[in-house]
């Protein structure tokens, strides 16, 4: 994710920000109803068990000595949230981790219940201080 | 490889093609830009459809891409049995079309081989996997590392012709400008690309280009016979002789064209291209001779659509339904041109009608034919004739004339050499 000056992830609704992209962004992460409610479906903020489980374009190039396929911009960092098991369950009181189908390494952070897109973005950003840079 | 995964999955192929472009930017030092970020954002979309195995494989492939055009690579380690075995495994996996496994095996062997050797095999594997742009990168890398071996530039130009026809055309024009000083294999390939492009030109321009290619093909054929290519790579010279004949045919000199086709058949009787070319030329004037040539080409296992296509038409016109059906089916399996697919499906539908297949089957086959050639009046007529009267008499259906068939064959035929 993009790193803010305080070494925490940058909140926002653009690519590689702590948040989700929404239409009219050409690559939305979630579907939103005309009333502004996030649809609870197979979509959300993508996360991985470990940064090495991610596609290489999301891993900064400076890590090529330990991860030869990294092609991400050097301006981004790999962040970790907590030390718990990477499994279906709560992330915060308003968010939960949903595993991607047929994958033990990839998941989506989604709302616990139907919320507006603004509430979802706020809930994601509220986890900001829990993320730490982890590039080992 | 499981069906619908890795190179059989459109999202995976899209991701790898975008990854290739990202590596181009990284090599140019221009990836940390808005353009680079836009490209990475585009990669998010296919990446979302990849499973963990595919992501891991794409990441390993990305690691390989860093070796392209790199000049700071480590010298090879001493050869080991395990490295040799891995290369054999890689080639076996490639031949089994398990391309991801082949590339993984090459990664095991890579530290023990020269980079150009590994990159050549990677290129040939990715070409087989129908990733010609990446294959072209690997062949270009190999040709730069081994500039004295013309095969690598030949393979590069061949892959480029599939990946980026406009770039290949520019390269071909540059090569042809100085063809006597180029390797004949390369000048042959460049002439082949320019010849194929004449289909996109107005008649007067294509005639000028084809006239200019005659001495290039003649020179290539001559030098192939001097440098050993004629005995080592017979399909290449058979294709060159055939194209030379086609040039003369386009220029209206049928006698010289036939002389070259005859020469090709005499010198390379186990290669299909001269038979097919001669068959196309003779179909309609000496049809029995043409049918013999097409039959011979099919017996040689020709990968080209044309022998089967013309034989299907021949049997259709003679009312030989089963033979027509068999040849049209064989042609359809090899057809890549929409009009040819449409014709094959139409003839299969006619045969099905005559063999009294269920009406729904025949109708569906006609409809499939029309998908490939919308509103084709002859196919529409034949379909309507069947719908109205379920006609089972082959002579009542319309079929393309010999002239129409000859025109489509001459327009699209290309011998396969690479």
- Determine Rg of chain B (CA atoms, Å): 24 Å
| Structural class by SSE content of chain B | mainly alpha
Round the mean pLDDT of chain B to the nearest integer and report it: 92
Give the averaged pLDDT of chain A, no decimals. 94
Series of H and E elements of chain A: EEEEEHE
What is the CA–CA distance across the termini of chain B? Answer: 25 Å
Fraction in helix of chain B: over 70%
How many beta strands in the DSSP annotation of chain A?
6
Shape of chain A: globular
Helix % of chain A is under 10%
Number of separate helices of chain A: 1
How many runs of DSSP E, i.e. beta strands of chain B? 0
N-to-C span of chain A? 16 Å
Radius of gyration of chain A: 15 Å
Classification by helices and strands of chain A: mainly beta
Q: Most extensive chain contact?
A: A-B, 25 and 29 residues
Entry keywords:
heterodimer; A: 136 residues; mainly beta; four-stranded antiparallel sheet; two-stranded antiparallel sheet; 6 strands; globular; B: 418 residues; mainly alpha; 22 helices; 73% helix
Can you tell me about this structure?
The complex is a heterodimer of chains A (136) and B (418). Chain A is mainly β and 136 residues long. Chain A is built from 1 helix and 6 strands; from the N terminus they run E-E-E-E-E-H-E. In chain A, the strands form 2 sheets. Chain A has a 4-stranded antiparallel beta sheet. A two-stranded antiparallel sheet of chain A has the order 2-6. In chain A, strand 3 and strand 4 form a beta hairpin. Chain A is globular, with a radius of gyration of 15 Å. Chain A starts with 44 loop residues before the first strand and ends with a strand. The mean pLDDT of chain A is 94. With 418 residues, chain B is mainly alpha-helical. Chain B has 22 helices and no strands. Chain B is globular, with a radius of gyration of 24 Å. The two termini of chain B are 25 Å apart. At the A-B interface, loops of A face helix 1, helix 2 and helix 3 of B.
């Amino acid at each position: 994710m993009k790193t803010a000056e305080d070494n925490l992830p940058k909140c926002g609704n653009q690519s590689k920000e702590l948040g989700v992209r929404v239409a009219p962004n050409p690559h939305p992460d979630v579907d939103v109803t005309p009333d502004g409610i996030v649809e609870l479906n197979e979509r959300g903020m993508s996360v991985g068990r470990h940064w090495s489980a991610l596609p290489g374009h999301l891993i900064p190039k400076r890590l090529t000595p330990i991860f030869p396929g990294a092609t991400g911009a050097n301006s981004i960092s790999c962040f970790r949230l907590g030390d718990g098991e990477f499994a279906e369950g709560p992330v915060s009181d308003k968010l939960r981790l949903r595993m991607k189908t047929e994958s033990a390494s990839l998941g989506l952070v989604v709302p616990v219940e139907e919320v507006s897109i603004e509430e979802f973005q706020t809930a994601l950003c509220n986890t900001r201080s829990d993320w730490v840079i982890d590039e080992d | 490889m499981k069906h619908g995964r890795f190179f059989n999955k459109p999202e995976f192929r899209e991701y790898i093609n975008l990854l290739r472009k990202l590596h181009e930017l990284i090599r140019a030092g221009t990836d940390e830009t808005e353009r680079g970020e836009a490209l990475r954002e585009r990669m998010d979309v296919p990446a979302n459809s990849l499973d963990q195995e595919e992501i891991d494989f794409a990441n390993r492939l990305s690691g390989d891409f860093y070796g392209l055009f790199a000049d700071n690579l480590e010298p090879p380690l001493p050869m080991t049995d395990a490295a040799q075995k891995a290369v054999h495994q890689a080639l076996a996996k490639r031949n089994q079309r398990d391309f991801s496994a082949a590339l993984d095996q090459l990664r095991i062997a890579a530290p023990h081989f020269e980079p150009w050797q590994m990159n050549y095999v990677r290129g040939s594997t990715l070409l087989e996997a129908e990733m010609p742009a990446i294959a072209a990168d690997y062949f270009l890398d190999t040709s730069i590392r081994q500039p004295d071996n013309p095969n690598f530039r030949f393979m590069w130009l061949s892959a480029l012709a599939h990946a980026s026809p406009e770039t290949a055309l520019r390269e071909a024009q540059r090569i042809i400008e100085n063809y006597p000083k180029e390797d004949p294999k390369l000048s042959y390939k460049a002439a082949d690309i320019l010849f194929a492009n004449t289909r996109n030109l107005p008649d007067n321009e294509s005639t000028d280009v084809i006239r200019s290619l005659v001495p290039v093909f003649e020179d290539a054929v001559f030098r192939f016979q001097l440098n050993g290519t004629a005995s080592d790579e017979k399909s290449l010279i058979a294709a060159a002789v055939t194209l030379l004949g086609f040039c003369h045919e386009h220029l209206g000199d049928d006698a010289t064209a036939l002389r070259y086709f005859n020469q090709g058949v005499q010198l390379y009787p186990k290669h299909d291209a001269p038979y097919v070319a001669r068959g196309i030329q003779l179909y309609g004037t000496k049809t029995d001779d043409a049918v013999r040539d097409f039959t011979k080409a099919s017996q040689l296992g020709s990968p080209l659509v044309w022998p089967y296509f013309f034989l299907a038409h021949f049997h259709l016109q003679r009312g030989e339904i089963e033979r027509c059906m068999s040849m049209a089916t064989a042609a359809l399996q090899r057809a890549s041109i929409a009009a040819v697919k449409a014709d094959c499906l139409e003839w299969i539908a006619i045969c099905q009608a005559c063999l009294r297949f269920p009406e729904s089957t025949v109708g569906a086959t006609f409809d499939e034919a029309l998908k490939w050639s919308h509103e084709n009046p002859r196919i529409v007529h034949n379909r309507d004739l069947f719908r109205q009267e379920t006609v089972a008499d082959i002579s009542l259906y319309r079929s393309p004339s010999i002239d129409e068939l000859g025109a489509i064959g001459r327009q699209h035929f290309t011998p396969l050499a690479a």
